[in-house]
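Quick illustration, no need to memorize.
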Amino acid sequence: MKQLVFVTLLLITTACASAEERDRMEVGLLLTHPIEEQEWNRQGYEGVLQLQSDYDAEVHVMEGITNFEETAEAVEQLADEGVNLLFGHGSIYSDMFLQLNNDYEDIHFISFNESASAENVSSMHFEGYAMGYFAGMLAAEQSVSGHIAVIGAFPYQPEVQAFAEGARWHDPDIQVSARMTESWIDDHAAVHYLDELADEHADVFYTAGDGFSEAAIERAADRGVHVIGYVTDQSSVSQETVLTSTLQHVEELYLTAADRFLNGTLEPGRHSFDFADGAISFAPFGPAVEEETKEWINEMVQSYAEDGKLPHESEQEEE
């Protein structure tokens, strides 16, 4: 088995008043890849650092945990360290936590974007469908060629599935292509697919994989096509190329989970978060997006945040 990376972080500053009134929280974080390899991993790391800062929590981070054997070993080690709130930063940990939780009743397990059905297991879920839907609408609006594309990591991503629906609702004649890298970090595959589709005149891409999105944006800049970024604001890669980015505010979910944990209100099961919760949003728009288009997409998103209905659902109700 490969060597595990183990990091312990201690905070020496004073806790905020709300945390002082409750039992101390000791936090563990499991990551599938090194922190620097994925934007998603970096966000998880920053999430626990926020808990360290806000709640005077001791934080233990373990990287490169990718299978059940490694996870079981990591959980045992973290339990010995006194961890009582454990984040598995990804859907991969959901089933593994459900196999381990009965042996660790003093730990509350949290995974992401999957189901959870045990008394001490919760899942924090980003509702990615609307995020992809609105990205598809914007891509269709911005396309000159009438051909847009999504490069995703895996076909099960709801934002990948929604991209085509949003695009075709806005423009029934739009051509939508999709390619999957089968990896969150495969730069080579993402760049290959972008080249392939740009050769077929796709001119707006949604790069729905945080580990490869930056490399794809760099190639898109070379090819003179536009991109909607993923998870974080990626305009710094190429302002002229990036139309906007679909943001997932991971740190907000960590703070929500920690606050509920300390208050005794962290329920088991799946907790969903969307635009209405401030957990998902669009980054500032790039110079290629006209003011009229910004206003239009913002109005659509605001309407969805208020009533929970995507544009085609509102249209069906009116009919």
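Residues 5-126+250-277 form a domain with the Rossmann fold fold (CATH 3.40.50.2300).
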